[in-house]
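User
New here, explain this?
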Amino acid sequence: MGTASWTDKTLLESGWYPEDVQTAEQRLVYYAEQFSLVEVDSTYYTPPNERNSELWVQRTPADFRFNIKAYSLLTQHPTRPGSLYKDLRPEGVTKNVYAKDLPESTVDSVWDRFLAALEPLHEAGKLGALLFQFPQWFPIGRRNKEYILQCQERSAPMQICVEFRNKTWLSAENQDETLDFLTSYRVPYVCVDMPQGHASSVPPVVVATADLAVVRFHGHSDKWTSKNIYERFGYEYSEAEMREWAPRIDQLGEQAGETHVLLNNCYRNYAQLNARQLSDLLSTVD
């Protein structure tokens, strides 16, 4: 159980951290006393670095886990050229690029460096999973299934998990095919709770396709399409909503060897409060 941030500025302003917790090190130490898992989303925007991985290992207990969001270039999202490693940036290019726009050797180097930076976490047994959240223009199909398997193979022995934002994967006619595919190759599927009725919406299908199961809560903001992330994710779940989810997550845990539950409604202390609330509810499920 954990959240998708421990350093968000609105979290720091909310008063969730005690007054004497001021530094980056103190915050992570305190967070790790409250939860056993955290998701690092900053790695989607900028590739991770090995030094941070080493510090995270040093500052957390042996059983703590980090889930790492895959860099945008690796999930077929548009990527800022300035976020690429300096020696790999295309000269004179200022607009966003996709992996298909770059030489294959450049993409291979990004893969290698991305994974190498996470090696300290992996070696310490603290790397939970690499989250590959694919865009809404990534529909079900042979080519995209092959790409998922390429991501799994390239990342091995690190564990990946996949989250879809294109409804074709989980539509009534394709859902069984998708889940069978993921189960056949032991690729963990990410169940999401999110606003419905949008181009990027997928239903909250709760199932495990591998020994690891993952659930991510995005909230139900009525401003899901806003470019302001706090409007998109600024939603605090009610106790009734969390109470509905507790038995579903408990049942999911019976299907998988390990279950990661992450609250991504990261505005002020909403995620931390809901994560604690859900954790308490799970402890009372019969």
In short: The chain has one domain: 2-282. The radius of gyration is 19 Å.
